[in-house]
Amino acid sequence: MPSHANNAQPLLRLSEFCVSFDGNVVVDSLSLTVNAGETLAIVGESGSGKSVSALGAINLLPDNAKVSGQRWLEETDLNQLGKRDWNDIRGNQVGFIFQEPMTSLNPLHRIGKQIGETLRLHQGLSGQAARTRAKALLEQVKLPRPDELLDAWPHQLSGGQRQRVMIAMAIANNPALLIADEPTTALDVTVQQEILALLKELRDHHGMGVLFISHDLNLVRRHADRICVMYQGKIQETGSVADVFNNPQSDYTKALIAAEPEGRPAEPADTTPLLTTRQLSVSFKRPRTGLFQRQPPAFEALKATDLTIAPGETLGIVGESGSGKTTLASAVMRLVASQGEVILGNATLSQLSGDTLRRQRHRLQMVFQDPYGALSPRMPVFDIVSEGLQFHYPNLTNAEVTERVHRTLREVGLPESCAARYPHEFSGGQRQRIAVARAIILEPELLVLDEPTSALDRTVQKQLVTLLRELQARRQLSYLFISHDLAVVRAMAHRIMVLKDGDVIEQGDCLEVLAAPQHPYTKALIEAAHLH
Amino acid sequence: MIFISSRLSPITLRRLAAFKANRRARASLWLFGVLFIVSLFAELIANDKPLVMKYDGQWYIPLLVDYPETEFGGFLPTRTDYLDPFVQQQISDHGWALWPIIPYSYQTLDMLMTRPSPAPPDRRHWLGTDDQGRDVLARVIYGFRLSVAFALALTAGSLVLGVVAGGVQGYFGGKVDLIGQRITEIWSGLPVLFLLIILASFVQPGFWWLLGIMLLFSWLGLVDIVRAEFLRARNLEYVRAAKAMGLPSRLIMWRHVLPNAMVATLTFIPFLFTGAIGTLTALDFLGFGLPPGAPSLGELAAQGKNNLHAPWLGITAFMTLAIMLSLLVFIGEGLRDAFDPRHVKQQQPPAQETKHA
C-alpha cells in the first residue's frame, strides 16, 4: 500500500472536537489527523457519529448543531472562518462525495453544466474552457464517451457512473482533502471495487488526503492506510490498518472484527420438496412510446425459473440490484402477476385466487428488507404481531392471542413488555425481530426473506442470522433467502442460485458454488465480496 | 388524560403537541368552539318566547310547549304572541317570566318599532334591525349556527364520498383508477352553479336540497389527494406485509392505508369547511340559496348591499363572515403545520428525529 505517511504533512487536524444537537452530545472529544497522500478511514456502526464528525469539520451541519474544539486545515484555523471563507474552502480545498449518487446530482441540469459550476465558482472558468476541463475530468474518472456524457442528463447514467461524476466534481479544483462519506454503499459490489480503485488512483496522482467514512470493515481493510474506530461518538481506537485488524485493543473493535457472520445451517432431514416452481416467470408491459406506435415487447423481469426447496432447507438467491431477486420473491408469494406454477406442499398456489388464496397465505410468510418501512408506525407491536393471527384464527380468545404473541416475542428474543410499545422505540435489529415474529406467529412452512439483513449493522446481522438458523432448526422452516451479501448467504443457505438480468446463471450447493464458481459473473461477485 | 395519551400513537401525540404550541391556532379553535357551542343553544339566547314563566301559580315552559292565548286571558285560541303588550301586561300582573337575553327570534318582526326599518342599533336591537324589522343580532346567531351546521354536514359527507372514491382508485390502481379518474374528470366539469339555478326554478331549495346538490360535487376535491396517498401507501412494505399475511383488501385499506392517507385529508378539511360556508353564503347572496326567512348570512349581506344607507347590515354581515372564516383558516394553518414533519422537526431535538426518519 503506497503510504506517504512518512513525510507526513498534516492536512486536517481535529482535536477535542465535539458536536452536540440541542444538548445531546453526538461526537465527544474526537481527535484525528489526516495527512497528505493517505487515506484515513472512520469506521463505526450507524449512529456512531462518523458522518456528523466529517460534516461538522467543514461546517455543513444544520444551525442547531453546536461545534466546539480545534479544527485546522493545513495552516488555516477553521474556527476563525466567516461564511464567505467557508464557501471558498468547500469544493476548492475540500472535496466531498456523498453516499447517495441518485440524489446528489441535480436532475434538471446536464452533467457538463454541473461540473462547470464548481469550475466557474472557484477557478473562474467559463464557456469552452470549462467544457474542456470538465471533459478532462470525466476522462480522469474513466467515464466512457466523455463528449456525449457532458450533455447527458443525470437520469441517463447508472449509479456507478453518477458516483464517478460526483468524484469528478469533487476533484475538479484539485482539493487537498477529499471527504468520501460512504461513497459506495448504494452501489453493487462489483461497481464498488471499481470506484474505490479509482479513488485510490486519484489520491496517489494528486497527493490528496482522503477521509473515508464507512461501516464496512472489509472495504476499509483493503482501501485505507489508517483506521479510526468510532462508537457512540467516541474514538475507540486509532492506528494503522494492520495494527487494528491484527491486534485490536478495545473490546468494541474486537467485536466489530469478529462480527462476520459465520457458521452453517443445520442439514434438512427431509428431501421431498415443500416448494416447487415450474417455469415461473414475470414480465411487465412497457408503455407505448406514442399513440400509434406498436406496443414494445414486455420487459422480462424474471425468466422461466424452476426451483425446489425442501422442508428445513434454505435456498439463497444471490444477485446484484435489478437482477430479479425481489421479483422472484414476490412471484413466489403471489404478490405480483406471474406465469408458471407455484406449488406449496399439496396446494398449487398459482391456480388459487381471492379468498382461497388468502386462506393459504399463513403457510408462507415474508420478511422485508427495510425494518423502518415494514412496520406500520401507527400500531403498537402487539397489534402488528397479532393481526394475521386474529384474521386467520378468529376463534382464538383474547387470552390465547396474548399468550401466543408473548410466546412468539420471547422466541425471537424480545421481552414481552415490548408488546405495548410502538415501532419507533426500537432499533433496526429489534424491528427486524418484530417482523420475524409477525411472520412466524402464523406458523408458516416457508419464510421468504428479502434482504432481511442488508439494512443492519454487522454485529446485528450476525445475531439475526443466528436467530433465523435457530428458528429453522426448531420449526423445520424452509427459507427462500435473498441477499446480495455473500458472507450472509454463506452463513444461511444450503443451496444457492445466482441471478443476473432475470436469468438463473448458476445454481448448486452453497459451499461448492462459492469455492468453485463456474460462471464468470459468479466469479466476479465472489471476488468482489472478499470472503474469508 | 394519561389513559387517553397511552391510547394515542406517539405520532399523534407529537402532532397534538405541535398544534398546542401554535397559540393562534389554539386560541382560534377555542374561540370557534365556544361560539359554535353557544350558537347551538341559540333558542335560549335569542327567542321571542320566555324560557319559563309562572302564571297564576302555574309553571309554563313556552320555549318547548305552544300555549293558546286563551291561557293568559286572551280572546283567540291561537299561539300566544308573548311580545304582544296585552299578553306582557297579563304576565306581569299574574306572575313573572324569564326571558332570553335577546327577546327576538330570527324571524320575529318587531311590531312596536318607533322608527322605520331598517333601524340603526340601539338598546332595543343591539345590532339594529333589517329592512323587515327583524333583529339583526338574532339572525346572526341563528345564521352562524346554520352555516356551521351546513358546512359540517357537507364536509362530513364529502369526506366519506371522497375517501371511498379516492381510496378505491388509488389502492386498486390500473383500470379501476383509469376509469374512475375519467369519470371524476367529467363529473367535475359539470357546472354546479347552473344546476342550482335550474333547481331553484322548479323546487324551493331548502337546507337538505342544497346540501344534496353541493354534496354531489364537493367530494371531487378530496379524490385526488386521497388517491395519491393510497397510490403511495399501497407499495409500502407494511402494506405488502399485510397482503402477504392474507388480509382482505378492505381490512388493509382500513387499518394500514387509511390512517396514513388521513394526514393529507385532515389538513384539507378546514379549507373544505370554509369553502362550504363561502358557497352557501354566496348562493344566499345571489338569491338561489335557502328559502326566504331562513337566517342566512348571505341574505344579510344582500340586504346590506341593497340598503347602503343602513351600514350596520353590511358591516355586521362582513364582520361575522370575516371572523368566522379567519378563525377557520387559522385552525387550518395550525393543523397543516402540526401534520408537517419538517415543522415538527424545528421544535424537537433533531438527533431524535433522524432516528425515526
TrEMBL record, chain A:
GO molecular function per UniProt: ATP binding; ATP hydrolysis activity
Name of the protein: ABC-type dipeptide transporter
Key words of the record: ATP-binding, Cell membrane, Membrane, Nucleotide-binding, Transport
SUPFAM superfamilies: P-loop containing nucleoside triphosphate hydrolases
Signal peptide: none
PROSITE patterns, alphabetized: ABC_TRANSPORTER_1, ABC_TRANSPORTER_2
Pfam family name, one: oligo_HPY
Protein family according to the UniProt entry: Belongs to the ABC transporter superfamily.
Keyword Ion transport: no
Tree of life domain: Bacteria
Catalytic activity as recorded in UniProt: a dipeptide(out) + ATP + H2O = a dipeptide(in) + ADP + phosphate + H(+)
Domain annotation ABC transporter: ranges: 12-257, 277-526
EC class of the enzyme, as a word: translocase
Localization: Cell inner membrane
Topology with respect to the bilayer: Peripheral membrane protein
GO cellular component term, pick one: plasma membrane
GO terms for biological process, alphabetical: peptide transport; transmembrane transport
UniProtKB/TrEMBL annotation, chain B:
Keywords recorded for this protein, A-Z: Cell inner membrane, Cell membrane, Membrane, Transmembrane, Transmembrane helix, Transport
TM ranges: 29-46, 148-172, 184-202, 208-226, 257-290, 310-332
UniProt-recorded name of the protein: ABC transporter permease
ABC transmembrane type-1 domain: residues covered: 144-336
Biological process terms in GO annotation: microcin transport; transmembrane transport
Main location: membrane
Tagged with keyword rRNA-binding: no
Subcellular location: Cell inner membrane; Cell membrane
Organism the protein comes from: Vreelandella alkaliphila
GO cellular component, one term: plasma membrane
Signal peptide residues on this chain, from the entry's feature table: none
Membrane topology annotation: Multi-pass membrane protein
Family, as annotated: Belongs to the binding-protein-dependent transport system permease family.
